[in-house]
Structure formats: C-alpha cells, structure tokens
C-alpha cells in the first residue's frame, strides 16, 4: 500500500515537472518572439534611416548605419570596406545623384542567429537625371544586407546593391515616373 502511494507521488511529480517544463518552454518561446519583434523594429529603423540619409544626401548619417568593418558594393560592382571608406565614397556618390531619391517598397528579414539577420529590400530610384540634367526613368533596385547586432544596436555588415532593371520600357518596370 505504501509502495502504491510512493509510485503515485512519483507519477504526479513527473507529470507536474513535465507541465512545468512545457510552461517554461512556452514562456521562453514568447520571450524569443518578443526579442525578435524588438529586433525587427530596430532593423526597420535602420532601413528608414538608410532611406532618409540617402534622400538627404548625408554621407555621415548614411555611413553610421554600417558597422566599422562593413563591406559595401554598389550596383556597378564598386566596393569599399569600412565605415570611413563608405562615408568618403558616398560624398562623391551623393554629389552625382543629387536629385535621385529612394522610395522603399518592401523588405524581408530573416534571423540567422539572434545577433545576425539577412535583410532584402526592394526600392525604386526616382528623380534620376543624367550628368547634364536630363530626366531618367525610375529604376527598381534590391538591397541585400547582412546585419549584425553589436552592443544592443543593429548595423549593416554587408551591403550588395542589385539593379533589377535600367528603367527602360523593355525592362518591365511596374511603376511610373514620379
């Protein structure tokens, strides 16, 4: 009789422990999802900061979105390494693209690890002109980023810019000149 009572107690303790572990895993999952939501919002702020810095032609603000050791490659395959080089590169770039504005369309974020994310962004270059000021058609572009979280802040670690079309009528652009 005493043995049956002890087995019953062990059974209930095991069952209680399994429920406890289950509840902890649900809480942990909730914490992970909440952390990812917070990180997603922080990454969206970087995307917004990128658009603003580009549109305002602010090379310092633009470069500060990148990690100290970031790699940047533009759509023409020109590359620079490091935040300071990215800033210097964009001083000239912004002068050449003085009327060009970015209009962000969509993005996706995939967390590789809690502190590493893959981000792709679809956007349109609008208000582009030739060096002599003649208007150019809008161009669809994709940014491909690897982002890292350092000291609680997200930075662009790798940027690859992909021109999806040249804005010509034959390129199937889905937007209109604005």
Helices, strands, pairings?
Layout: H1 2-55, H2 59-63, E1 66-73, E2 79-81, H3 83-96, E3 101-113, E4 116-126, E5 139-150, E6 153-163
Parallel strand pairs: 1-6
Antiparallel strand pairs: 1-2, 3-4, 4-5, 5-6
Tags for this model:
about 180 residues; six-stranded mixed β-sheet; 3 helices; 6 strands; elongated
Number of strands: 6
Largest sheet: 6 strands, mixed
Rough outline: elongated
- Summarize the amount of helix as a percent range: 40-55%
Secondary structure class reads: alpha+beta
Task: Write down the overall mean pLDDT.
Answer: 83
Number of DSSP helical runs: 3
Helix and strand run? HHEEHEEEE
Stretches with pLDDT under 50, minimum 5 residues: 171-178
Strand order of the largest sheet: 2-1-6-5-4-3
**Portion in beta strands:** 25-35%
The N- to C-terminal Cα distance equals 86 Å
Radius of gyration: 25 Å
Can you describe what's shown?
With about 180 residues, the protein is of the alpha+beta class. Helix content is about 40%, strand content about 35%. The chain contains three helices and six strands; from the N terminus they run ααββαββββ. The chain has a six-stranded mixed sheet with strand order 2-1-6-5-4-3. The longest helix has about 55 residues, at about 1-55. It is elongated, with a radius of gyration of 25 Å. Residues about 170-178 have low confidence and may be disordered.
């Amino acid at each position: 009789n005493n043995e049956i009572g002890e087995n019953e107690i062990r059974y209930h303790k095991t069952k209680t422990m399994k429920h406890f572990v289950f509840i902890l895993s649900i809480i942990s999952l909730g914490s992970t999802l909440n952390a990812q939501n917070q990180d997603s919002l922080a990454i969206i702020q970087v995307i917004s900061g990128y658009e603003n810095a580009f549109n305002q032609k602010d090379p310092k603000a633009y470069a500060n979105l990148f990690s100290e050791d970031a790699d940047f490659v533009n759509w023409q395959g020109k590359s620079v390494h490091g935040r300071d080089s990215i800033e210097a590169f964009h001083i000239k770039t912004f002068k050449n693209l003085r009327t060009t504005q970015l209009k962000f369309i969509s993005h996706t974020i995939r967390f590789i690890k809690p502190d590493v994310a893959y981000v792709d962004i679809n956007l349109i270059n609008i208000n582009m002109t030739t060096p002599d000021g003649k208007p150019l058609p809008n161009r669809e572009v994709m940014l491909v980023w690897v982002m890292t979280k350092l000291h609680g802040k997200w930075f662009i670690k790798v940027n690859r810019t992909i021109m999806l079309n040249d804005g010509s009528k034959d390129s199937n652009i889905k937007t209109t000149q604005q």
